[in-house]
Amino acid sequence: MYYKPLTLKWRPKHFHELIGQHNILKLIENSFLLKRIQSVYLISGIKGIGKTSLARLIAKGLNCKNGITFRPCQSCCNCQEADSNCFIDLIEIDAASYTKIEYIKEVLDTIKYSPSKGRYKIYIIDEVHMLSKYSFNALLKILEEPPLHTKFILATTEIYKIPETIFSRCFHLNLQPIRKKYIIDRLKNILTLENVYYEEYALDLIAQSSQKSMRNALSLTEKALILGNNKILSNLVSKMLGIVHINEIFNLFEALILSNKEQLISFFEICAKKIVNWDDFLIKLLILIHQIILFQIYPNKMNFILKKEKYIRFQKISKKISTNDLHNYYQIFLKGRQELTYAPEQKIAVEMIILRAFLYSIN
Ligand SMILES: [Zn+2]
Prior knowledge:
Elements: H1 6-9, H2 22-33, E1 40-44, H3 51-63, H4 77-83, E2 90-94, H5 101-108, E3 121-126, H6 133-144, E4 150-156, H7 164-167, E5 171-174, H8 180-193, E6 197-198, H9 200-208, H10 214-227, E7 231-232, H11 234-241, H12 246-257, H13 261-272, H14 278-297, H15 299-305, H16 308-320, H17 323-342, H18 346-362
The structure holds zinc ion.
GO biological process, one term: DNA-templated DNA replication
Function: DNA polymerase III is a complex, multichain enzyme responsible for most of the replicative synthesis in bacteria. This DNA polymerase also exhibits 3' to 5' exonuclease activity.
InterPro entries: AAA+_ATPase (IPR003593), DNA_pol3_clamp-load_cplx_C (IPR008921), DNA_pol_III_gamma-3 (IPR022754), DNA_pol_III_sug/sutau_N (IPR012763), DNA_Rep/Repair_Clamp_Loader (IPR050238), HLD_clamp_pol_III_gamma_tau (IPR045085), P-loop_NTPase (IPR027417)
């Protein structure tokens, strides 16, 4: 038996497994219930968010032997073949590999034939924005009056590249970047089913670094499992992702506002020994400053959000610095983030930004 990576093994087979997209799923469920089936769906969203999975789920729901359904039976031959990617009436085209008109024409020529086994012949065109101008024109002709037995599902990461003439004929489903909470819940669910030990903080770190994409989160989880010998451990994940712990960032900021040069040097000495994701570091620093400002404005509200230990730290630090200074530090780090691209090394950029903040603190 070949090993299936987590990204493939846990690809959604049911609509409810597509996390963080409640509104879109409700829209599809209702349209199936009301039999308001569209001719052309256009699914957009960032990479790894579930566009192709959603396209395949719609195709399966439309062709289940038990009728058009939001809950395909998974047991009829159409559902099973759809799950194995060998359903004869589901044609998937990767527009990134086949941009030319000749190929698209060849595919579109098959439209006149009725479906062999399913209710509909379904064409999924992935990365549709990559089609050439001529290919889009050929597609447009079909979309103007698609045969009743045919459905199109187009998917793209770059919605603004879709010609208006095509866009206006589509039922647009815009998938949202997935919230951290949903990614963590799904990872917990998967790892429990995989019977794997995990530390909650490690999943938090993975979700933070996933760029709101479930596929990224699963790829990182796979790496973490290999690194941790089938365990997901916070210290290893933290090293793998180059993440500086929030307590260290807190210590650094405290050292800055107290103009504690020795502590700043010690921070850089520690960081020199490991690989650090400096952009993530600056983002966390900005979030911390934002939270301290909020704390100064609504100390009572933050009582409900922060854990007790963190609350006490916020209380102490917010007494040592004015809101005005916090805003100035925020600006220094926010503008500094742009320097990451241009500096000879990201580490040098961050050192320079922190030195700038240090000079501000002693003046
Ligand atoms: Zn079925």
